[in-house]
Design brief:
Layout: E1 13-25, E2 28-33, E3 50-57, E4 60-67, E5 77-82, H1 89-96, E6 102-106, E7 123-129, H2 133-146, E8 151-158, H3 167-176, E9 181-187, H4 203-212, E10 216-217, E11 220-224, E12 231-236, H5 238-250, E13 258-262, E14 281-289, E15 292-300, H6 305-311, E16 329-334, E17 337-339, H7 347-351, E18 354-356, E19 360-362, E20 366-370
Parallel strand pairs: 7-8, 7-12, 8-9, 12-13, 14-20
Antiparallel strand pairs: 1-2, 1-6, 2-5, 3-4, 3-6, 10-11, 14-15, 16-18, 16-20, 17-19
Helix pairs in contact: 4-5
């Protein structure tokens, strides 16, 4: 996960020492940070969460969010990072950060998590693309460690075999858990002689996976493995998430059991919006952001609240625009909005007045929101 702007809410940082740096492929590497005993309570985390790294460059503080590959039981913070260009934050880390150096690391957060059920028989399926393997790896290590009755299936897409990230670690997990973990690799730019595993992970591949891989269930000969799936975890680019999430839903998995994490800005809805809304024009908006109060007018409610504020050049925090990351979380103090389906807020939080600006359709002539959450 990488945020484009810092959130309005306060994030707690601590200085951690870099214990390990390792190059994985030509464009990816890992960083491992030590957690001193006095900070251990601040770095308790759940599988699938992330931390923010803060770096000072040219007098400015740069922030980037990175998912952890470590599992909670390992007692360390390990990150998988991809370098997209020599001008990127990631390249600066790779080039300049040395073992023994100190770096500001935020306390863990994020909601790409699932409830632990160590006493149940579960089937969990993961879909990952490229660097999207990072939180999935955290989940799978944790599930194998804490849920002895859970079986796991991973479908992992990369351009070529050479670009598979954490290949050795994944192979070791399969070796140690041959009856509980099955991994299948897919390649979008390499021919391997089997059409099933050639091409991108998308809705068509999901149908083939269900019919050719997740077929007869050894534990119940009258059903398919797919029919026993309890949770689906998806991480990668927006188009991949949208395609796979909808395919899983259309093949019978409830939306509440489909979890996803986005690794780039994505401006589309994950699921289709089927509801129509009455047209409201000339909407007065008041909002608080970074201790500043702003007022503006929206022409109408044909676009969501966040998108309209960004068009007007307000510095509202965001990352996904798709109801996944929670960066644009705020409190609705005055007015009415329709909050569309999202992956972030709980029903309890919605009932308390919290909304996501990116998923909010304004339904009143006046609204007032507060982005300064503590």
């Amino acid at each position: 996960m990488e945020n484009l702007l810092p959130k309005a809410r306060q994030i707690e940082f601590h200085w951690l020492k870099l214990a390990k740096k390792q190059e994985l492929t030509k464009s990816t590497f890992t960083l491992e940070f030590e957690i001193p005993p006095e900070l251990s309570s601040h770095y308790q985390f759940e599988a699938g969460q992330y931390v923010t790294l803060r770096l000072k460059s040219d007098g400015n503080h740069l922030h980037k969010d990175f998912s952890m590959t470590s599992a909670p039981y390992e007692g360390k913070i390990t990150l998988g990072i991809k370098i997209n260009s020599e001008e990127s934050f990631a390249y600066t880390l790779f080039k300049d950060l040395q073992i023994g150096d100190q770096l500001e690391v935020s306390e863990p957060r994020g909601r790409f998590t699932i409830i632990s059920k160590p006493h149940e028989f579960r089937t969990i399926v993961g879909f990952a693309g490229g660097i999207g393997i990072t939180p999935i790896l955290s989940h799978f290590k944790n599930l194998l460690h804490t849920e002895p009755r859970t079986r796991l299936f991973l479908f992992y897409g990369n351009k070529t075999r050479e670009q598979i990230i954490f290949k050795n670690e994944l192979a070791e997990l399969v070796k140690n858990n041959p009856d509980r973990l099955e991994i299948h690799y897919f390649y979008s730019q390499e021919k391997i002689g089997n059409g099933l595993f050639e091409g991108r992970l998308n809705e068509k591949k999901v149908a083939l996976i269900i019919n050719q891989i997740l077929m007869l269930d050894d534990t119940d000969e009258e059903s398919r493995i797919w029919d026993a799936v309890d949770e689906v975890l998806i991480c990668g680019k927006g188009e991949m998430i949208k395609s796979i999430a909808n395919a899983c839903y259309e093949h019978g998995i409830p939306k509440k059991n489909i979890h996803f994490e986005l690794f780039e800005e994505f401006n589309e809805d994950i699921y289709p919006v089927e509801k129509e809304f009455p047209l409201i024009e000339n909407i007065a908006v008041d909002f608080k952001l970074f201790d500043n109060n702003y007022q503006t007018t929206l022409k109408n409610n044909k676009m969501r609240l966040l998108q309209q504020l960004l068009i007007q050049k307000f510095p509202v925090p965001y990352s996904c625009k798709s109801g996944i990351c929670g960066s644009c979380e705020c409190i609705l103090e005055v007015g009415e909005v329709e909050l569309l389906e999202n992956e972030y807020l709980t029903k309890k939080e919605e009932a308390s007045g919290k909304i996501l600006a990116c998923m909010s359709v304004v339904l009143s002539k006046n609204v007032k929101v507060n982005f300064d959450l503590m």
